[in-house]
Amino acid sequence: MRFKDKVVLITGAAGGIGIAAAQAYAKEGAKLALVDLKQEPLEKAAEQIEAQDKLLLTANVSNEEEVKGFVQKTKDHYGRIDIFLNNAGINGEFHNITDQTEENFQNVFGVNVMGVFFGLKYVLQVMKEQKSGAVVNTASNGGLLGAPGMSAYVASKHAVVGLNKTAALEMAEYGVRVNAVAPSGVNTEMMRRIEQNAAGDQAEEARKAFEASVPMNRYATAEEIADLMVFLSSDQASFISGSYYRIDGGQGAT
Ligand code: NAD
Q1: Is residue 90 within 6 Å of ligand 1 at its C-beta?
Q2: What is the whole-number distance in angstroms between the Cα of residue 224 and the centre of ligand 1?
Q3: d(CA 173, ligand 1 centre) in Å
Q4: Is the Cα dihedral 53, 58, 62, 66 positive or negative?
Q5: Cβ neighbours of residue 26 under 8 Å, at least 6 residues apart?
Q6: In this structure, are residues 190 and 91 in contact, taking their beta carbons and an 8 Å threshold?
Q7: How many A from CA of 217 to the centre of ligand 1?
Q8: What is the pLDDT of residue 190?
Q9: Which atom of ligand 1 is nearest the CA belonging to 17?
């Protein structure tokens, strides 16, 4: 029970990785604050998570006031925040740069960059005061590599890596660790949307091609990503900060 009575705040908690992570922390005794855009999917997700305490919070992470609000509500309810998974993200539309639109770029940056920044801004205030805490930002292998058709997403996830490093440096003296995970394709709804965006009615073919580009020839499971998040936020990772970890079936080695 590594997380007995620890308070874990997760954004994007109704999505594939968010649910798997919430389940993993709950199994080890954590109390959860789960954030996503809409109440109904959040309730459906919560039904799949057996935790001693679950606080459900609807908010749009791209709205600073809403982020401030869910951080305050978590603090009011539990009195502290021990672990923060800064995880909500969107893939956006599929366009090469020559056809990219400002609207798509702004939408993706609104969630993936401003959302991550707002989450850090308010949660780190709480952790700084506590003089303890661990953050895991969800980046992507798209934050380390390029991906044709996904310039907005790729640029946004590179920005997450920059925020991750800077936050770690600013928080080290307060005993707060900040790390990121950088997964390749994970078998969640996000990959279904990316396959669809990339290839329309050939989505199944796109899926095979994406999986074949991974040396281990498959997508990750959400549980595999959750396991890495859990490790990075645990006391076993007590000297790890400012790092990002590829979890990509060998793709980064190609
Ligand atoms: P998902 O689509 O299943 O879940 C994402 C969740 O984020 C959804 O529940 C969605 O409602 C929520 N969300 C989106 N915009 C939001 C907003 N503005 N405010 C609050 N919540 C919002 O996808 P996932 O695979 O679970 O993705 C989780 C994270 O992992 C994302 O940051 C994503 O970029 C990253 N990631 C995913 C993959 C992949 O292949 N699935 C690979 C690398 C990184």
Answers
A1: yes
A2: 15
A3: 31
A4: negative
A5: 32, 49, 50, 51, 52
A6: yes
A7: 22
A8: 95
A9: 26
Domains of the chain, CATH where assigned: 7-184+223-247 (3.40.50.720), 186-219 (no CATH)
The model's pLDDT over 38-92, given as tens digits with 9 standing for 90+, comes to 999 999 999 999 988 999 999 999 999 999 999 999 999 999 999 999 999 999 9
Q: Which helix (H) or strand (E) holds 67?
A: helix 64-78
DSSP collapsed to 3 states, 38-56: CHHHHHHHHHCCCCCCEEE
Is 119 close to ligand 1, i.e. is its CB under 6 Å away? Answer: no
Question: What ipTM does this complex have?
Answer: 0.99
Give catalytic residue positions: 153
Amino acid at position 47, single letter: E
3-state secondary structure at position 160: helix
User: Has this prediction a pTM greater than 0.95?
Assistant: yes
Q: Which helix (H) or strand (E) holds 103?
A: helix 102-109
Q: How far is CA 212 from CA 91, 96, 209, 216, in A?
A: 20, 22, 5, 8
**Tokens at 16, concatenated:** 């594939």
Distances (CA, A) of 211 to 218, 224, 249: 5, 16, 10
